[in-house]
Structures are given as structure tokens and as C-alpha cells.
Amino acid sequence: MFTNNDETGLKRDLYEQSKPGMIDTSSVSPNWFTFIDHEWDALQKDFFEKSLDDLLVELVSIFRKGNPNYNNLGSLFGTEKKRVEDDSNKIIYSVNQVNRKENDITNVTMFLDPDSHKITEIYICVQILPPMNELKCRIEDSYSDLLVNVSNEFVIIDNDFKLTLKSD
Are 119 and 110 in contact (CB under 8 A)? Predict the structure, then answer.
């Protein structure tokens, strides 16, 4: 994990928002060069190795600290990304080749506000859903003010974001 000193640069870079109207054409991340190598490597390793439950708790923590930059967050999940303007006035950003040790996540899709480019919803598709009632208890223990719904999907709703875990 990171010390407070290590987290400073990451926090700034992970949360720096894209500029509306600017198309990101970088191959990995608009702020790739601003990460210190060991910080970025450690964060990628965390996303690669953490259990799915731990990763979801970490994602809630990331969103609770502020809305992360969609491209930087997407880069933590994988490499094959695409961005599409939707007719319903949303921007869709997908990671179709997710890098995970357990190969449990097949796709990550983020819906962005077209004006601010902030992530409003994130959908994580998995091979097999984890024990959802246990996960619900764990998240509610850590974040008592979140709304967590369990049905055929696992949905976390907060004031600024919605995270949905669903099976392919």
C-alpha cells in the first residue's frame, strides 16, 4: 500500500479531470508522465492482484475522495479502451481488455457527464458474481451512508456515482 507521501502525487493525477471538448488521444493516460514510476506500478499491481471484494471497496474509497479522471482509472483496469459519444447525451468509455490476475472482470464501462466528463456510472462485468450478501455487509460496514442493492446485480449508489457489478 502507499504511504501518505506516495499518495500525494497519485491523488492529484488520478483525480485531475479531463477538459470538456478536448479529445484525449494519448495511448495510455493524459497524465501518464506525471506519475512516479513506482507509484503507478504499485497502483496497477493493486488493481491487478486485489480480490474482487477488495477492489470494489477500494473503488468506493476512490470515488468518495473525489471523482477520478476516467482515462486514468480506465488505464488501471486495462489497455484496450474506447470512447463513444452516445445519442442520449452521455459519453461511454469502455475497457474491453481488463488485466486482472484472476481474470474475473471481463469489461468495465463508465458513463461520463458530457459537460464535465465526470464519471456518473461505472459498470463492472464479471465472470461470476461474488457472494453478494457478504459483500453488501462489508461495504455497509465501511460506508454506512451508501445505498447497496442486491438482486441479479450488485449496485452501490452514492450522491455522485453509481457502481454496478453484474454477471456477463
Answer: yes
Residue written as grid cell 506519475:
35
Per residue in 103-138, pLDDT tens? Answer: 999 999 999 988 888 999 999 999 999 999 999 999
If you search the block for the grid coordinates 494519448, which residue do you land on? 26
Task: Please say whether the beta carbons of 96 and 81 come within 8 A.
Answer: yes
Q: Collapse the DSSP code of 142 into the 3-class scheme (helix H, G, I; strand E, B; otherwise coil) and give the result.
A: helix
Question: Of 116, 115, 135, 134, which is closest to residue 124 (Cα–Cα)?
Answer: 135
Q: Which of 30, 37, 2 is nearest to 14 (CA)?
A: 30
Contact 62, 81 (CB under 8 A): no
Residue 98: strand, helix, or coil: strand
pTM listed for this prediction: 0.78
